[in-house]
Amino acid sequence: MGKISIVSRQFKADPFPFYANLRAESPIYPTQVGSRKVWLVSRYDDVVSLLKDERFVKDRRNIEGSKQKEQWVPAILKPLMRNMLDQDEPDHRRLKTLVHQAFTPRRIEHMRGRIQEITHILLNHLEKKREAELIHDFALPLPMTVITEILGIPAADHGKFHHWTRAILKAPTELNALLSLPQMVALMKYLRTLVQSRRDQPRDDLVTAIVQAEEAGDHLSEDECLAMIFLLITAGHETTVNLITNGVLTLLQHPAEKNRLLNDFSLIPSATEELARFSPPVEMATERYARSDLTLLGAGIKAGEMVLGVIASANRDESQFKKADVLDLGRNPNKHLSFGQGMHYCLGAPLARMELHIAFRMLLERFPDLVLKARPEQLRWRPTFVIRGLERLPVRV
Protein backbone atom coordinates (compact mmCIF):
# COMPACT_ATOMS: atom_id res chain seq x y z
CA MET A 1 0.00 0.00 0.00
CA GLY A 2 3.03 2.26 0.12
CA LYS A 3 4.21 4.61 2.81
CA ILE A 4 1.50 6.78 4.33
CA SER A 5 1.38 9.30 7.16
CA ILE A 6 -1.73 8.77 9.23
CA VAL A 7 -1.36 12.23 10.82
CA SER A 8 -1.02 14.27 7.60
CA ARG A 9 -3.66 16.73 6.43
CA GLN A 10 -3.99 14.87 3.14
CA PHE A 11 -4.68 11.57 4.87
CA LYS A 12 -7.15 13.11 7.32
CA ALA A 13 -9.18 14.58 4.45
CA ASP A 14 -10.36 11.10 3.39
CA PRO A 15 -8.87 8.13 5.25
CA PHE A 16 -11.80 5.83 4.52
CA PRO A 17 -10.58 4.19 1.25
CA PHE A 18 -7.29 3.33 2.98
CA TYR A 19 -9.18 1.77 5.89
CA ALA A 20 -11.44 -0.19 3.53
CA ASN A 21 -8.29 -1.61 1.95
CA LEU A 22 -6.94 -2.55 5.37
CA ARG A 23 -10.15 -4.35 6.32
CA ALA A 24 -10.05 -6.31 3.08
CA GLU A 25 -6.33 -7.14 2.92
CA SER A 26 -4.43 -6.24 6.11
CA PRO A 27 -6.65 -6.29 9.23
CA ILE A 28 -3.54 -5.60 11.30
CA TYR A 29 -1.10 -3.23 9.67
CA PRO A 30 2.28 -1.81 10.80
CA THR A 31 3.06 1.86 10.20
CA GLN A 32 5.04 4.73 11.73
CA VAL A 33 4.07 7.82 13.71
CA GLY A 34 7.20 9.89 14.00
CA SER A 35 9.91 7.45 15.08
CA ARG A 36 7.44 5.07 16.74
CA LYS A 37 6.16 1.85 15.20
CA VAL A 38 2.41 1.38 15.61
CA TRP A 39 -0.02 -1.35 14.56
CA LEU A 40 -3.46 -0.48 13.17
CA VAL A 41 -6.41 -2.82 13.80
CA SER A 42 -9.21 -2.04 11.36
CA ARG A 43 -12.12 -4.53 11.52
CA TYR A 44 -15.08 -3.95 13.85
CA ASP A 45 -14.95 -7.22 15.80
CA ASP A 46 -11.18 -7.00 16.11
CA VAL A 47 -11.32 -3.44 17.42
CA VAL A 48 -13.96 -4.40 20.01
CA SER A 49 -11.79 -7.33 21.11
CA LEU A 50 -8.70 -5.12 21.31
CA LEU A 51 -10.44 -2.58 23.53
CA LYS A 52 -11.27 -5.36 26.01
CA ASP A 53 -8.08 -7.42 25.66
CA GLU A 54 -6.20 -7.63 28.97
CA ARG A 55 -2.99 -8.51 27.11
CA PHE A 56 -2.76 -4.80 26.31
CA VAL A 57 -2.15 -2.05 28.82
CA LYS A 58 -2.58 1.72 28.89
CA ASP A 59 0.16 2.37 31.45
CA ARG A 60 3.57 1.50 30.00
CA ARG A 61 4.86 0.76 33.47
CA ASN A 62 2.73 -2.38 33.36
CA ILE A 63 4.65 -3.83 30.41
CA GLU A 64 6.24 -7.09 31.54
CA GLY A 65 10.03 -7.05 31.74
CA SER A 66 10.17 -3.47 30.54
CA LYS A 67 13.56 -1.89 31.00
CA GLN A 68 12.45 1.41 29.55
CA LYS A 69 13.11 4.34 31.78
CA GLU A 70 10.02 6.33 32.61
CA GLN A 71 9.76 9.21 30.18
CA TRP A 72 11.17 12.38 31.71
CA VAL A 73 8.71 15.17 32.16
CA PRO A 74 8.94 18.36 34.23
CA ALA A 75 7.75 17.82 37.79
CA ILE A 76 4.80 20.16 37.28
CA LEU A 77 3.45 17.86 34.54
CA LYS A 78 3.78 14.59 36.46
CA PRO A 79 0.07 14.47 37.37
CA LEU A 80 -0.87 14.21 33.68
CA MET A 81 0.98 10.92 33.45
CA ARG A 82 -1.57 9.42 35.83
CA ASN A 83 -4.87 10.45 34.24
CA MET A 84 -7.77 7.98 34.15
CA LEU A 85 -7.52 7.46 30.39
CA ASP A 86 -4.02 6.02 30.77
CA GLN A 87 -4.71 3.71 33.72
CA ASP A 88 -5.27 -0.03 33.92
CA GLU A 89 -7.27 -1.97 36.49
CA PRO A 90 -7.63 -1.63 39.42
CA ASP A 91 -6.50 2.03 39.29
CA HIS A 92 -8.83 2.91 36.43
CA ARG A 93 -11.91 1.49 38.16
CA ARG A 94 -11.06 3.32 41.38
CA LEU A 95 -10.70 6.68 39.60
CA LYS A 96 -13.83 6.19 37.51
CA THR A 97 -15.86 5.24 40.57
CA LEU A 98 -14.73 8.37 42.38
CA VAL A 99 -15.36 10.76 39.51
CA HIS A 100 -18.81 9.24 38.97
CA GLN A 101 -19.66 10.65 42.39
CA ALA A 102 -19.09 14.10 40.90
CA PHE A 103 -20.07 13.73 37.23
CA THR A 104 -23.63 12.66 37.95
CA PRO A 105 -26.64 12.38 35.59
CA ARG A 106 -28.38 15.00 37.73
CA ARG A 107 -25.54 17.48 37.21
CA ILE A 108 -25.60 16.84 33.45
CA GLU A 109 -29.38 17.12 33.14
CA HIS A 110 -29.26 20.33 35.15
CA MET A 111 -27.30 21.87 32.24
CA ARG A 112 -29.99 21.26 29.58
CA GLY A 113 -31.61 24.68 29.87
CA ARG A 114 -28.22 26.41 29.98
CA ILE A 115 -27.03 24.53 26.86
CA GLN A 116 -30.16 25.69 25.03
CA GLU A 117 -29.54 29.25 26.23
CA ILE A 118 -25.89 29.25 25.10
CA THR A 119 -26.88 27.77 21.73
CA HIS A 120 -29.55 30.45 21.26
CA ILE A 121 -27.06 33.24 22.00
CA LEU A 122 -24.49 31.83 19.58
CA LEU A 123 -27.08 31.42 16.83
CA ASN A 124 -28.18 35.04 17.29
CA HIS A 125 -24.60 36.11 16.62
CA LEU A 126 -24.47 33.86 13.56
CA GLU A 127 -27.66 35.38 12.19
CA LYS A 128 -26.13 38.86 12.32
CA LYS A 129 -23.03 37.74 10.43
CA ARG A 130 -24.73 35.74 7.66
CA GLU A 131 -21.35 34.32 6.66
CA ALA A 132 -19.44 32.65 9.45
CA GLU A 133 -16.67 30.27 10.42
CA LEU A 134 -18.69 27.63 12.20
CA ILE A 135 -15.95 26.31 14.50
CA HIS A 136 -14.97 29.68 15.93
CA ASP A 137 -18.51 31.03 16.00
CA PHE A 138 -20.46 27.98 17.17
CA ALA A 139 -18.91 24.51 17.42
CA LEU A 140 -16.10 25.57 19.75
CA PRO A 141 -17.72 28.09 22.11
CA LEU A 142 -20.72 25.85 22.83
CA PRO A 143 -18.96 22.82 24.42
CA MET A 144 -16.14 24.98 25.76
CA THR A 145 -18.63 27.18 27.62
CA VAL A 146 -20.58 24.15 28.83
CA ILE A 147 -17.66 22.16 30.28
CA THR A 148 -15.93 25.17 31.80
CA GLU A 149 -19.18 26.35 33.41
CA ILE A 150 -19.79 22.86 34.82
CA LEU A 151 -16.26 22.84 36.19
CA GLY A 152 -16.57 26.38 37.54
CA ILE A 153 -13.93 28.06 35.34
CA PRO A 154 -14.47 31.80 34.67
CA ALA A 155 -15.68 32.71 31.16
CA ALA A 156 -12.71 35.04 30.68
CA ASP A 157 -10.38 32.02 30.73
CA HIS A 158 -12.18 29.88 28.11
CA GLY A 159 -9.93 30.98 25.26
CA LYS A 160 -6.82 29.96 27.17
CA PHE A 161 -8.08 26.41 27.53
CA HIS A 162 -8.70 25.98 23.82
CA HIS A 163 -5.22 27.29 23.03
CA TRP A 164 -3.63 24.98 25.59
CA THR A 165 -5.49 21.81 24.58
CA ARG A 166 -4.99 22.28 20.83
CA ALA A 167 -1.23 22.44 21.40
CA ILE A 168 -1.29 19.35 23.60
CA LEU A 169 -3.36 17.23 21.18
CA LYS A 170 -1.02 17.50 18.18
CA ALA A 171 0.67 14.38 16.80
CA PRO A 172 2.91 12.78 19.49
CA THR A 173 6.27 13.62 17.96
CA GLU A 174 9.26 14.74 20.01
CA LEU A 175 9.09 18.18 18.39
CA ASN A 176 5.41 18.66 19.19
CA ALA A 177 5.97 17.46 22.76
CA LEU A 178 8.71 20.06 23.15
CA LEU A 179 6.67 22.85 21.56
CA SER A 180 3.65 22.09 23.75
CA LEU A 181 5.57 22.25 27.03
CA PRO A 182 4.89 25.96 27.72
CA GLN A 183 1.15 25.43 27.20
CA MET A 184 1.11 22.35 29.42
CA VAL A 185 3.03 24.13 32.19
CA ALA A 186 0.66 27.10 32.03
CA LEU A 187 -2.36 24.80 32.17
CA MET A 188 -1.08 22.86 35.17
CA LYS A 189 -0.25 26.02 37.11
CA TYR A 190 -3.76 27.28 36.46
CA LEU A 191 -5.41 24.00 37.51
CA ARG A 192 -3.34 23.67 40.67
CA THR A 193 -4.43 27.14 41.75
CA LEU A 194 -8.04 26.31 40.88
CA VAL A 195 -8.05 23.07 42.92
CA GLN A 196 -6.53 24.79 45.93
CA SER A 197 -9.08 27.60 45.76
CA ARG A 198 -11.96 25.05 45.81
CA ARG A 199 -10.45 23.27 48.80
CA ASP A 200 -10.36 26.58 50.64
CA GLN A 201 -13.69 27.92 49.34
CA PRO A 202 -16.00 25.16 48.02
CA ARG A 203 -18.59 26.11 45.39
CA ASP A 204 -21.44 24.37 43.58
CA ASP A 205 -19.32 23.25 40.64
CA LEU A 206 -17.66 20.12 39.29
CA VAL A 207 -14.14 21.01 40.47
CA THR A 208 -15.43 21.20 44.04
CA ALA A 209 -17.31 17.92 43.57
CA ILE A 210 -14.13 16.24 42.29
CA VAL A 211 -12.12 17.60 45.21
CA GLN A 212 -14.74 16.32 47.64
CA ALA A 213 -15.49 12.98 45.89
CA GLU A 214 -15.41 10.06 48.29
CA GLU A 215 -16.08 6.32 48.00
CA ALA A 216 -15.65 4.01 50.99
CA GLY A 217 -13.37 6.54 52.66
CA ASP A 218 -11.21 6.99 49.54
CA HIS A 219 -10.52 10.39 47.97
CA LEU A 220 -8.73 11.63 44.90
CA SER A 221 -5.26 12.96 45.64
CA GLU A 222 -4.41 16.47 44.48
CA ASP A 223 -2.49 15.08 41.49
CA GLU A 224 -5.44 12.84 40.61
CA CYS A 225 -7.77 15.83 40.81
CA LEU A 226 -5.52 17.75 38.42
CA ALA A 227 -5.35 14.86 35.96
CA MET A 228 -9.12 14.36 36.10
CA ILE A 229 -9.92 18.02 35.46
CA PHE A 230 -7.43 18.09 32.59
CA LEU A 231 -9.08 15.02 31.05
CA LEU A 232 -12.59 16.43 31.43
CA ILE A 233 -11.57 19.73 29.84
CA THR A 234 -9.84 18.04 26.93
CA ALA A 235 -12.48 15.41 26.26
CA GLY A 236 -15.30 17.74 27.30
CA HIS A 237 -14.77 20.21 24.52
CA GLU A 238 -12.25 18.95 21.96
CA THR A 239 -14.18 15.87 20.87
CA THR A 240 -17.55 17.64 20.97
CA VAL A 241 -16.22 20.49 18.82
CA ASN A 242 -15.36 17.94 16.17
CA LEU A 243 -18.57 15.97 16.62
CA ILE A 244 -20.52 19.14 15.80
CA THR A 245 -18.20 20.27 12.99
CA ASN A 246 -17.84 16.88 11.30
CA GLY A 247 -21.56 16.31 11.68
CA VAL A 248 -22.54 19.62 10.08
CA LEU A 249 -20.08 19.10 7.22
CA THR A 250 -21.49 15.62 6.64
CA LEU A 251 -25.04 17.00 6.49
CA LEU A 252 -24.01 19.72 4.05
CA GLN A 253 -22.41 17.11 1.83
CA HIS A 254 -25.56 14.94 1.93
CA PRO A 255 -28.42 17.34 1.13
CA ALA A 256 -31.05 14.59 0.80
CA GLU A 257 -30.37 13.39 4.35
CA LYS A 258 -30.21 16.96 5.60
CA ASN A 259 -33.69 17.59 4.12
CA ARG A 260 -34.90 14.34 5.64
CA LEU A 261 -33.89 15.63 9.06
CA LEU A 262 -35.40 19.06 8.41
CA ASN A 263 -38.71 17.36 7.66
CA ASP A 264 -38.63 15.15 10.74
CA PHE A 265 -36.74 16.38 13.79
CA SER A 266 -37.78 13.26 15.69
CA LEU A 267 -34.77 11.75 13.88
CA ILE A 268 -32.36 13.90 15.91
CA PRO A 269 -31.29 11.09 18.30
CA SER A 270 -30.64 8.53 15.56
CA ALA A 271 -29.14 11.22 13.30
CA THR A 272 -26.68 12.14 16.03
CA GLU A 273 -25.57 8.52 16.36
CA GLU A 274 -25.22 8.15 12.60
CA LEU A 275 -23.20 11.34 12.22
CA ALA A 276 -20.92 10.16 15.03
CA ARG A 277 -20.51 6.83 13.24
CA PHE A 278 -20.00 8.24 9.76
CA SER A 279 -17.38 10.88 10.60
CA PRO A 280 -16.17 10.27 14.16
CA PRO A 281 -14.03 12.90 15.91
CA VAL A 282 -11.93 10.21 17.59
CA GLU A 283 -10.47 8.46 14.56
CA MET A 284 -8.50 5.94 16.61
CA ALA A 285 -8.84 4.66 20.13
CA THR A 286 -6.08 5.93 22.38
CA GLU A 287 -2.84 3.99 22.67
CA ARG A 288 -2.60 0.46 23.97
CA TYR A 289 0.69 -1.34 24.54
CA ALA A 290 1.39 -5.06 24.39
CA ARG A 291 1.97 -6.22 27.97
CA SER A 292 4.32 -8.96 26.68
CA ASP A 293 5.34 -10.53 23.38
CA LEU A 294 2.17 -11.86 21.78
CA THR A 295 0.43 -12.76 18.54
CA LEU A 296 -2.52 -10.70 17.36
CA LEU A 297 -4.38 -11.58 14.15
CA GLY A 298 -1.37 -13.52 13.01
CA ALA A 299 1.13 -10.70 13.61
CA GLY A 300 3.91 -10.93 16.15
CA ILE A 301 3.70 -7.95 18.50
CA LYS A 302 6.65 -7.25 20.76
CA ALA A 303 6.21 -6.18 24.37
CA GLY A 304 5.71 -2.42 24.55
CA GLU A 305 4.67 -1.94 20.93
CA MET A 306 1.69 0.37 20.38
CA VAL A 307 -1.54 -0.98 18.90
CA LEU A 308 -4.37 1.31 17.81
CA GLY A 309 -7.96 0.29 17.24
CA VAL A 310 -9.17 2.38 14.29
CA ILE A 311 -12.64 3.60 15.27
CA ALA A 312 -13.22 5.32 11.91
CA SER A 313 -12.57 2.02 10.13
CA ALA A 314 -14.62 -0.16 12.49
CA ASN A 315 -17.54 2.24 12.03
CA ARG A 316 -17.49 1.56 8.28
CA ASP A 317 -17.17 -2.22 8.51
CA GLU A 318 -19.78 -3.85 6.22
CA SER A 319 -19.86 -6.93 8.45
CA GLN A 320 -21.47 -4.78 11.17
CA PHE A 321 -23.20 -1.98 9.25
CA LYS A 322 -25.33 -2.59 6.17
CA LYS A 323 -24.30 -0.15 3.40
CA ALA A 324 -21.67 1.19 5.78
CA ASP A 325 -20.50 3.96 3.41
CA VAL A 326 -24.05 5.30 3.07
CA LEU A 327 -25.28 8.00 5.46
CA ASP A 328 -28.63 6.89 6.91
CA LEU A 329 -29.92 9.23 9.62
CA GLY A 330 -32.52 6.67 10.65
CA ARG A 331 -30.04 3.80 10.98
CA ASN A 332 -31.09 1.27 13.59
CA PRO A 333 -29.37 -0.58 15.15
CA ASN A 334 -26.22 1.51 15.18
CA LYS A 335 -23.59 0.03 17.49
CA HIS A 336 -20.82 2.44 16.48
CA LEU A 337 -17.67 2.75 18.55
CA SER A 338 -17.31 6.53 18.54
CA PHE A 339 -17.68 6.75 22.32
CA GLY A 340 -15.40 3.78 22.92
CA GLN A 341 -15.99 0.31 24.32
CA GLY A 342 -15.24 -1.59 27.49
CA MET A 343 -13.93 -0.04 30.69
CA HIS A 344 -12.69 3.06 28.85
CA TYR A 345 -16.13 3.93 27.45
CA CYS A 346 -16.48 7.72 27.37
CA LEU A 347 -17.56 9.09 30.75
CA GLY A 348 -18.92 12.23 29.07
CA ALA A 349 -21.03 10.50 26.40
CA PRO A 350 -24.40 11.52 27.97
CA LEU A 351 -23.31 15.18 28.09
CA ALA A 352 -21.96 15.07 24.53
CA ARG A 353 -25.19 13.53 23.24
CA MET A 354 -27.27 16.20 24.96
CA GLU A 355 -25.15 18.97 23.46
CA LEU A 356 -25.33 17.41 20.00
CA HIS A 357 -29.11 16.91 20.08
CA ILE A 358 -29.59 20.55 21.02
CA ALA A 359 -26.92 21.93 18.68
CA PHE A 360 -28.04 20.08 15.55
CA ARG A 361 -31.74 20.77 16.06
CA MET A 362 -31.47 24.46 16.96
CA LEU A 363 -28.92 25.15 14.22
CA LEU A 364 -31.05 23.56 11.50
CA GLU A 365 -34.28 25.06 12.78
CA ARG A 366 -32.75 28.53 12.66
CA PHE A 367 -30.78 28.06 9.43
CA PRO A 368 -32.44 25.41 7.22
CA ASP A 369 -30.63 26.81 4.16
CA LEU A 370 -27.16 26.53 5.73
CA VAL A 371 -24.56 25.95 3.00
CA LEU A 372 -20.83 25.34 2.78
CA LYS A 373 -18.79 28.35 1.59
CA ALA A 374 -15.80 26.35 0.30
CA ARG A 375 -15.13 23.38 -1.91
CA PRO A 376 -14.49 20.22 0.13
CA GLU A 377 -10.93 19.97 -1.22
CA GLN A 378 -10.22 23.46 0.14
CA LEU A 379 -10.98 22.46 3.72
CA ARG A 380 -7.93 21.97 5.93
CA TRP A 381 -7.87 19.04 8.34
CA ARG A 382 -5.75 19.20 11.46
CA PRO A 383 -2.57 17.06 11.39
CA THR A 384 -3.36 15.34 14.69
CA PHE A 385 -2.96 11.80 15.98
CA VAL A 386 -6.10 10.37 17.53
CA ILE A 387 -8.48 13.24 16.69
CA ARG A 388 -9.93 13.95 13.23
CA GLY A 389 -11.20 17.50 12.87
CA LEU A 390 -11.19 20.56 10.66
CA GLU A 391 -9.31 23.80 11.23
CA ARG A 392 -12.13 25.90 9.76
CA LEU A 393 -15.63 25.40 8.41
CA PRO A 394 -16.83 28.45 6.44
CA VAL A 395 -20.61 28.58 5.99
CA ARG A 396 -23.38 30.90 4.84
CA VAL A 397 -26.41 30.94 7.10
Automatic annotation (TrEMBL):
Classification via SUPFAM superfamilies: Cytochrome P450
Keyword presence, Metal-binding: yes
One Pfam family it belongs to: p450
Family under the similarity heading: Belongs to the cytochrome P450 family.
Organism per entry: Deinococcus roseus
Keywords: Heme, Iron, Metal-binding, Monooxygenase, Oxidoreductase
PANTHER family: CYTOCHROME P450 YJIB-RELATED, P450, PUTATIVE (EUROFUNG)-RELATED
InterPro entries: Cyt_P450, Cyt_P450_B, Cyt_P450_CS, Cyt_P450_sf
Gene: pksS
PROSITE patterns to which the protein is assigned, alphabetical: CYTOCHROME_P450
Entry annotated with the keyword Glycoprotein: no
UniProt name for this protein: Polyketide biosynthesis cytochrome P450 PksS
